[in-house]
Amino acid sequence: SRLAPASTVTSICGYCATGCQLKLHLNEAGEAINLSPQANYPVNLGMACPKGWQALDPLAAPDRGTTPLLRDPATGERRPIDWATAVDLFTSKLQGIQDKHGRDSAAFLSTGQIPFEEMAFLGLLWKSGMGFLHGDANTRQCMATAVTAYKQSFGFDAPPYTYADFEESDVIVLSGSNLCIAHPILWQRIMRNRRMPEIIVIDPRSTETAQAATVHVPLKPKGDLALYYALAHCIIRDGRIDPEAITHTEGYDEFAAFVRDYTPESVAERTGLEPATVEKLARLVSEPGKRVSWWWTMGINQSYEGVRAAQAMINLALITGNIGKPGTGANSITGQCNAMGSRLFSNTTSLVGGHDFANPEHRQKVADGLGIPAERIPSEASLAYDEILHAAEQGKIKALWIVATNPFHSWIDSGRLAALRDKLEFLVVQDMYHSTESAAVADLYLPAAGWGEKSGCLINSERRIATIKPVRKAPGQTLTDFRIFRLLAEAWGCGEMFADWTDPESAFRILRDLTKDRPCDITAIKGYEQLDQAGGIQWPFPRSGDSQSPLSSPESSPIDKVANHSLFTRHSALGTPSERRLFADGHYYTPSGRARILYSAPDELPEAPDAKFPFMLLTGRGTSSQWHTQTRTSKSDILQKLYPAEAYIEIHPRDAKRLGVLNNQTVTIRSRRGEMKASAYLAPTVQPGQLFLPMHYPEVNKLTHPSFDPHSRQPNYKASAVTISPS
Ligand code: SF4
């Protein structure tokens, strides 16, 4: 029939880190005309959320860039230029800045939204090709805390779980995670759990997830660290630890002494919870014979003490023996589609391939793999995102190259970026759209292809590597990021370094080989075709692991095994490479092989409510139909219909009554940094004294307080003091 597709290809969704596989249906010309979720993919099992279903819509938006644009600094007007002029301008400006001010005078800000082959190209081009020092990714805004927590505790950034653990747990603890709307397919995985699990949600808000849970623990904002220490206190006091599991840890005795003071009574003020609630929770998460899994997202990560809070959950999993077994784990759920790829390959915090910049052997190994002298790999760590922006405010960083991210909307205390813009000598923004808040103020805008217009690999939350495919032609003169990096490398004079990076798959093979002997070793992956046939492959997948691999099994093809979910589940219990969890052998990546139990006393809130700003502002995802700054999702009429176009704020009815605020009335929210208007939504989803704003509206971060976790430098988006009044 006329409506039947000519062919179909598979591709991983390019929004969140769940990593659903989609089937893209193509016409005779090879262009996608429609899509549907893949039924036999081991992640989404035939499901997709609204964003995935509408993933093709943003490609056809009228504000797609079609040519490079040059902005007149005097008038702000932009005019189209050709690629040769754009590349010339890029290299001459940046070379001039480097010659005059040194290699720490410019920085890139990249993303968790592009394939890791492109991330690695950018990071290596910038640091080893062009010779600059600083670059960070927007994963600093979502995953830096989990990265640091895992590195410190386990010796490597290694989320230990597999999604089958959702279905195999007896007790599922979700902390600071509105899974129902932020990762709706993962919530469906919980719904498939046949063990009648206890689902415990620890969250100040009565979120969609809290309302669907069996237990909601409505603690005070940022009371989590004290709560986890009180849980550890009760568990140790009652002898509900796992003595064998503790032999695989360091620091247990000191930790036991530390939590002795954290009685349920002592944390009541900080957590807002009755001691009996804490006691009951402690029993639930340490029930002998029960499989307990701990899961967290941004409510933990985006905090001024997120690393210690994440580690407090890791500690609870370690001392109760809930790690390395089916249905267990201390599990960070990633945000962006390729945040996990960024963690291994962006060459920002860690040297590409899971290495350390400070380690001379690592630098030599990576240099050998890339065919360059080791001296071209910096030994110093880059400044973190906030430090880069601070250096730009001080005039030390003169130029920024922003790739596929939108900090003028998303960065904390975003009002400061307007002033920072004027300090920069040169701002380049490379993005699908010329209309983002960041692209609109760039000196030079470079039009980039998006998801659906290029190939490469993404890594999802459970460490599964899988491919995306081009299914549409990018508009006008738009190029893939990969192609832009190649052009710039040639123009800079370092093209030879990337002579073998002819396309994303050749880059994949080079990067794959760099992972050899690291915990993330994927040297047994032959190429994209194998990834497609296997239904994605979770790292590690080293060459020596081939004998265990279902891919080498003669009885059934990998896709058959993927299709048979019960077989998959059995494999996961065995820890085979097809669906594998880490630490089943009790061995961690630290020098001693034991996990470190790390802790420190909770700190005071950086900005507590007071008489002038009496409300605590919480921010977060508002819906499953919108993504971050709405750069792409605002282009879909269907997704827009599922969510209010104008900002709204949740306020408790009791507070609203006291302030004379009516439902749907326009209110003004003010912080010490800025103000915005929103429509009041009266709902007991927030507690009295608290307000909730979805992060998708551009004004929200004018309010947020710029404080950061000292270990991870992740911004603390979810605790700012504000006031609210009728407009
Ligand atoms: Fe799946 Fe996430 Fe894409 Fe939705 S946005 S379809 S949950 S990968």
TrEMBL record:
Entry cofactors: [4Fe-4S] cluster; Mo-bis(molybdopterin guanine dinucleotide)
The record's keywords, sorted A to Z, are: 4Fe-4S, Iron, Iron-sulfur, Metal-binding, Molybdenum, Nitrate assimilation, Oxidoreductase
Stretches assigned to the 4Fe-4S Mo/W bis-MGD-type domain: 6-63
Which segments of the protein form a coiled coil according to its record?
A: none
* Extent of Low complexity compositional bias: 542-557
For the region Disordered, what residue ranges are annotated?
537-558, 705-727
Q: Residue spans with biased composition (Polar residues)?
A: 713-727
**Is Lipid biosynthesis among this UniProt entry's keywords?**
no
Family statement: Belongs to the prokaryotic molybdopterin-containing oxidoreductase family. NasA/NapA/NarB subfamily.
Which protein is depicted?
Molybdopterin oxidoreductase family protein
- Per the UniProt record, the source organism is Haloferula chungangensis
